Structure formats: structure tokens, C-alpha cells
Amino acid sequence: MEKTKITLICDRIALFCLYGIAFFLPISKAIIEVFIYLAIVSFLVKKIISRKIPSKIPFNLACFIYLFICFFSIFISSNPQISIRSFFGKVLTNLTLLFVVADTLNSERKMKNFIFILALASLLLGIDGIYQHFTHRDFIRNRYNLQIPRIYATFPTPNDFGCYLICVIPFILVNLFITFKYKINRFFYAGLFLLLFTCLILTVSRGSWFAFIGIMFFMSVWNRSLGLLFLIISIIILATQKFYYPIFKWRLDNFFVFQDPSSKDRILMWSAAWKMLMSRPLIGLGLGTFMFNFKNFVAQGYLYSAPYAHNCYLQIATEIGIIGLVSFLAILVVLFFNGIMALNKGEKTFFWYILLASLAAILGFCVQMAVDTNFYNLDLGAFLWLIMGISISAIKNVKAELKN
Questions:
Q1: Residue 83 — very low, low, confident or very high, per pLDDT cuts 50/70/90?
Q2: Phi, psi (5° rounding) for residue 285?
Q3: How far is CA 150 from CA 130, 207, 263, in A?
Q4: For 43-87, what is the HEC assignment?
């Protein structure tokens, strides 16, 4: 009885921490770090007392291989100290968080509460973004004004804010189709989508816009209403383009043209990253060592430092090699394979919609990874693994519903 009581307390602590992460993720990195570590400790204590291990699924094996390759990278690293910090501070922590989420958010009530808290946090961020558009400052963290006609709310850059919106919007959209006791809930999520989509436009983040197109196409495969919504949005944007601010018109006119200073700078960083990769293509230069090695490979005369490659796949390959990149992609392949199989076979229940939203959010994140740094950000990187945990929980529940 005493063990059962301790296990229950640990589970409640982990759940409370996940709720805290959902709300504070865009607000404070320090707070979410505390919640992440507390959730992990509670999860481990619960598993040790109950003597239970996570269920064996192909996803576990893919995660273990990726973890092993990252750990091995420490011993062949160009800077072992950096690699050790990266392994324990990011890789191991985020992978463990994934299993905490999959194990803890195991019921409809818990998942609904989590999504609602996530929605409240995004509502606050959306209001902050609109406020920033008109006043050029945010009221939550009072971020330094970047002197650009784009919004970024509590995040350091507009691209980061756009990535956060991309991850949240799919969960808001599916709530338009979930059955609620009160109809006002559906109006709340409809209004929230309009707010967040407006903020997404105001970020003027091309990577985020590409990601939004990807998630809408993906979700439209299983929900034609979302396809119609996407078509209506596209027509309205094209029809009203002449009324936009100059920066929006310029971005739309040059959507597939990559000759702006930011794009040219990325090309230089990609060139340096490619040289790094070619120096040790299979095993890489060491986990977390991109910034440490960048100065040795960038073109002479480049004036800026580059902590990230602005292409997360390329940076993964430079640090842990092509083998490491393949192991990371294997996690995504296994996840999407199992997820799409569950979507095709399952009924459109609550967890079916959550699975659709989580896969769409992961897809959007992965699209933006090709041109940005989101995978290596403490908050956004943890958000990806958290959403993966949600997808695993949803897959389990959809499969359980099929058996009943």
C-alpha cells in the first residue's frame, strides 16, 4: 500500500510538471528546466518502485540506437567536455522527457487538461504578439526591441516564435472537430486559431510559413474540411495582397527567391557546415561541437560567429556523422509509420485527433529544421520531444480503442 501511494504521488508530480512545461515553455527556460528535471526524477522513482519499464515497441529501439551513437560521439569528439554537456544536458534529458510524457499523459482527461493549458499559454502569447506589433515591445518579458517590423513575443527571434506557433496550431485546429459538452469551447478554439494564424503571418518567417503549408497538406489528407479551410485562407491572402505592409508584400513576392541577406548568410554557414561534414562524414566531429569547429571551416573574412548551422539536419550530421543523422531520421520514420497506420485504421475519437495534430506538429517542426535552429533551442528542442511523447501516447490509445 505504501509503494502504491508513493507511485501515485510521483505520477501526480510528473503530471503537474508537464502542465507547468505546457504553460511556461514560451515564457521562462529556467522554469521549464526545473519542471523537466522534476518530472524525470518523479518518473524514475515511480518506475523503480513499481519495477515497470516502458512497453517494448520499435520506437524504443530507434531511440536507443540514437542515444548510443550520441554517447559514442563523446569518445571521438574534438571537444569531449562540450559533448558530455550536450549528451546529458540535452540528448538524454529530452529522450527521457519523451517517455515521461508518453507514460504520464495516458488518459483522455489528462490529455485534455494538457492541451487546454497549452491553449491558454498560446492565447497569452498571441495577445502579446499583437500588442508587440502595435507597441514594438512585449508585455510578458519586455524583450529588447529588435527594430524590425516583425513580431517575436517572448522569443529571441521571429523564427522561434513562428516555430512555437507551428507546433501549437495543429492542436488548436483539431479541437474544432472534437465533441465538447459546451459549444462555446469550439468558438474559443476558432478564435484562438485566427489569433495565432495572424501572429504567424506577422512573424514574416518564411520557414514557419513553409511549415504551415506542410501541416495543412498533411492534415487535409485525413480531414477534407481543413483542406477547404487552407484553400480559403490561400485565396484570401492572394486576393488581399496589395493591401499588406511592404515587408509582407515583399516576402510573398519573393517567397521562392533566396537572394536576401539572411539567405546569403545561411548559404555561407551551410558551406562551412558541409566542409565540416566532409572532414569526418561517418562519425562527425563530436556532439555539440559545431560552434567550436565552425571558425576552422568558414570562409576567410566571415565576421560573425555561428552557434548553429541554420540547417539542423546538416548540423546533426556534422556533429554525430551521417550514421547519427540516419539514426535520428529512423526515429521519425518509425514514429510516422506507426502513427499513420493508426490513423488509417482508427475511428475519429479524441485520441485519433490528438495523434493527427501531434504528427502534423512534428512534421511542421521538421520542415522548419531545414532552414533554422529550432532543434537546438532549449525550449523548442524540448517541445519537439514532448510532442513526440504525446504522439506515442495517442498511438497507444488509438490501438487500444481498436482492440475494444
A1: very high
A2: -95, -5
A3: 10, 14, 17
A4: HHHHHHHHCCCCCCCHHHHHHHHHHHHHHHHHHCCCCHHHHHHHH
